[in-house]
Structures are given as C-alpha cells and as structure tokens.
Amino acid sequence: MIKFRDLMIVLVGYIICFYLMDLSWTLFQETNIWLRLLIVDFVGTIFIYICSNIFRNSSWYDAYWSVIPPFLILLVWMDVDADPSLSRAFLMFACVLFWAIRLTYNWVRSWDGFSHEDWRYVMMKGRTNSSVQYALVDFLFIHLVPTLCVFVATLPFCFVVYYSSGEINKFDIAAAIIICGAVLLQIISDQQMYNFRQDPSNQGKTMTKGLWKYSRHPNYLGEILFWFGGFIFVLGNSFDFLWSIIGTLVMYILIGITSIDMMDKRSRERRSDFSDYESSTPRLFPRFVYKS
User: Fold this and answer.
1) What is the pTM of this model?
2) What average pLDDT does range 40-57 have in this prediction?
3) Sequential DSSP letters for 33-102
C-alpha cells in the first residue's frame, strides 16, 4: 500500500509537470521551436527537481527519463508549422511508446517507494562537503545533465515529426527493426535479472546466465540501440541530419561508459565472484567469436 501511495504521488507530480510544460510551450510560441522545446524541457526538470527536494528523494527523476521524450515529440508534432509524413510519424511514435512503456514499467516494478533512492544518487550526494555542493550535484548532475543528454538524443525523433519526407522508406523499416529488437533485448534481460533477484539463494551472487552470459549489461546495450534507432529514423528524412549521431554518442558515453563504470566498480566491491565474470564477459557488446 505504501508503494502504491508513493506511485500515485509521483503520478500526480508528473501530471502537474506535463501541465507546466504545456503552458510553457504556449507562452513561448513565438520562439524558435527547438529553443522553445529546450525551455519546456528545462521547466519540467526544474519542477521535478523541486519535487525531489520536497520529498528528499531524487528518484523522482527516474520516471522523467522514459515519460518526457514521448511528450516532447507530441509537442513538436502538434505544432502548427509541423509538416510530418503521417505514416512515418505513426511508425516512429509507436516505436518510442514501446520503449517508454517498457522502461516505465520496469521502473515501477523495481522502485520501492520513497523509502528507496537510487544508490548512484545517494553516492553522488554523499561525496559532497557542503549544502551548496549538495544542491549543485543534485541539480546539475542528477537532474539537468541527464535532461540535456536525453534532449539531444530525442531531437532525431522530433525532426521526423516536424519535417516531411514522403512515405515509409528503408531507413524507417531498419530503424523500427533496431528499436523493436532493442526493446525486446531489454525486456528479456530485465526479466531474467528480476527472476534471478527473486531467488534468495542468489543474494550476493552475480547473474551469469541467459543474455547476461554474453554481456555484462545487455539492458544497457538495448538502451543505446534504441537511441541509435532514432538516428536511423531521421536519415529517412535527409542525410543533412547526419550530425544528429551526436545524440547516440552522448548516450553511449552516459550509459555505456559512465554508468557502467560506476556499476562495475560497485559490483566488484559487493560480489566476490564478479571479478571472474568481468574478466570473461564483455561489458556491453557480445563477442560472437571466442578464443579456445
């Protein structure tokens, strides 16, 4: 019941967040659309940061990662100047919703309510030496920096619904296959890890079976592939958007390097069998050819 109550509080908070973002979208309607979108995203981040401080739990921000990108795409899609190819837009948005629903569900299932806060947030804030440092780390590195990273990675999806480019093409089909495959990879790996952790006998042990046999972080691999799918989608508009690969690269640095380094370090400290697993299993991309 406590978890349900806390989830309802977060739900109400995000409904208010959506309202404030939509209001900001209207207030800045004379502004360049991409700057306008950034302002709206910033307003939403500020509100969730305030909620995090009121409830003393920065895990308020976890849901932002999955629910805000579809909302930003919808705002662009509804703009009066948008000229989308509807078949392409619907295909792309369906893929994004598939990813968002999966990620949100996984967070809801794993979050225990306000009694729990992501260990990375606790660690980052615990390293501060003053209230000023604490506030800066909380706002900049837990809230604002991830928002900017996701914003840059979301832009290719927004371009698809803003600029017209004909009917569904080979890039769209390839992107849809990549994204659906990425989300399925996440669903399977998340479920395997969930089942593993439900068994009390596995406490303190490292998951080495299923997809986790081939990659130490198959769920993160799926996440990076999802954002790469957005880049492939926008190539169906024009190769003028080649620069938007920056979004995928940013997500790779954030997830494939920074987050994995933090998680592997923690695992080495907490699990005696992790070093052997680490030495024999790739951190992200599976090896399909092994030395005998």
Assistant:
1) 0.94
2) 97
3) HHHHHHHHHHHHHHHHHHHHHHTT-GGGGGGHHHHHHHHHHHHHHTSTT----HHHHHHHHHHHHHHHHH
